[in-house]
Amino acid sequence: MELALYHPEIGYYARAAQRSGRAGDFVTSVDVGPLFGELLEVQLAEMADILAACHAEQAGRPPDRNPAANQPNSASHFDLVEAAAGNGRLSADILRAARRRDPAFCNRIRLHLVEASAAARAEQVHALGAEGGRLASSSPDLPASFEGVLLANELLDALPVHQVVMRPDGLREVYVHASGAWLRTVEGPPSTPALEAYLDRLGVVLEPGWRGEINLQAVEWTRAAARHLSRGFIIIIDYGHRARELYSATHSGGTLTTFTRHTSAGPERSADAPAWLEDAGERDITAHVDFTSVQAAAEAGGLTTLGFLDQTYFLMGLGAATADAGDLKRRLALKTLLMPGGLGSTHKVLILGKGVGTPALAGCSFRLRVT
Question: Is residue 69 over pLDDT 50?
Answer without folding.
Answer: no
